[in-house]
Amino acid sequence: MTSNTSNNALHVTQLSSRTRWNAALAKLPTAHVFQTWEWSMFKLRHGWQPDHYLWVGDDGPFAAASVLTRRLGHWLPAVMYVPQGPALDYGDTNLLGQVLDHLENTARKGRALFLKIDPDVQAGTSEGKSVVEMLRRRGWRPSNEQIQFRNTLLLDLTPSPDELLAAMKSKWRYNVRLAKRKGVTVRQGGLDDIPLLYRMYAETAGRAEFVIRPEDYYRDVWGAFIEAGLAQPLIAEVEGQPVAMVIIFQFAERAWYMYGASRTAHRDKMPNNLLQWEAMQWAREQGCTVYDMWGAPDELDESDPMWGVYRFKKGFGGEFVRHIGAWDFPISQTGYWFYANVMPRVLAIMRWRYRLSRSRS
């Protein structure tokens, strides 16, 4: 945890070194894997221009923001996004003000339509209320476009394995043991497994009717993070047959359950339960203290599309955490209105066409 900025003169610098950036980021509160150098380079290959800003004082780094910029067209303005950031102590209002000053000015100079952030700040807390008040006062708006999940489930990994098992719901604990008795094994995957991982992911997407990207996209992101040692696939097998998988990302003592998939074969043997258990143990071996299950319903109601996923995750003993969500700082009011009101309709039509094509295939 960095010290308060009241007695520190900070300066902002741009970094162009992966090693320096990740090392500085890892020291900061709310450091997220989406703020790493690897994530920004992945986004660079997919149309975004990254800039890495670090706020430094005598005591070291105090804040960091990986800002992604995307031009909407040759003669059109840009949109800017700080994914799951910026990283800083949000209880330090002086620091937050300095960071927002710089980000807002960067968006103006870049002639952006708007700048989006989605801070790792819990809603309903005194800190969360203070941050929301500051954002509103400065002209920020709650975003209609929540690119990342607003809410999640967090599991404390510091207890012993026996204590983690005991904290699960009894049925989940039983299913972990059942999977082992039924011959489910879990192995660590690697780069050579990416085609298999994608096939399982595509099969799951077709069954659950959610939209995924082409294989090259996942080959890029999964491969980059596996190569960097920041992601680990785990594959559940029954008699050598792959039946389920998860891909766990990790950075700065935190692990994220980002991707998961399963086949219909051997589902009665509960491979998904054992996978989550093995993922938690792998994360603990990497020195992680928090396991982020990455995604929970906006409202805790059975009508929410994510309710079934939430019930599965909740059974492992995690704590539901609600965040303040994404916030936008509009530069062009007219352009922002068009983007916020028209683009969601365009995306909805694209998703409808995708589901229609899947149903006809």
Task: Walk me through the topology.
Layout: E1 11-14, H1 18-26, H2 37-44, E2 49-57, E3 60-71, E4 78-82, E5 87-88, H3 93-109, E6 112-117, H4 126-137, E7 141-142, E8 151-156, H5 161-167, H6 170-181, E9 184-188, H7 194-208, H8 215-227, E10 231-238, E11 241-251, E12 254-262, H9 271-285, E13 290-292, H10 307-314, E14 319-322, E15 327-330, H11 333-360
Parallel strand pairs: 4-6, 12-13
Antiparallel strand pairs: 1-2, 2-3, 3-4, 3-5, 6-15, 7-15, 8-13, 8-14, 9-10, 10-11, 11-12
Characterization of this structure:
The protein is α+β, with helices and mostly antiparallel strands and 361 residues long. It contains eleven helices and 15 strands. It has helices at 18-26, 37-44, 93-109, 126-137, 161-167, 170-181, 194-208, 215-227, 271-285, 307-314, 333-360, and strands at 11-14, 49-57, 60-71, 78-82, 87-88, 112-117, 141-142, 151-156, 184-188, 231-238, 241-251, 254-262, 290-292, 319-322, 327-330. Helix 9 links the parallel strand 12 (254-262) and strand 13 (290-292). Helix 6 crosses helix 9. The termini are far apart. The mean pLDDT is 93.
Describe the biggest sheet?
Answer: 8 strands, mixed
Total beta-strand segments: 15
Q: How much of the sequence is in beta strands?
A: 15-25%
Class per helix and strand makeup: alpha+beta
Approximate shape: globular
Radius of gyration: 21 Å
Mean pLDDT: 93
Low-confidence segments, given as residue ranges, are none
Helix content: 25-40%
Terminus-to-terminus distance: 53 Å
SSE string: EHHEEEEHEHEEHHEHHEEEHEHEEH
Number of helices: 11
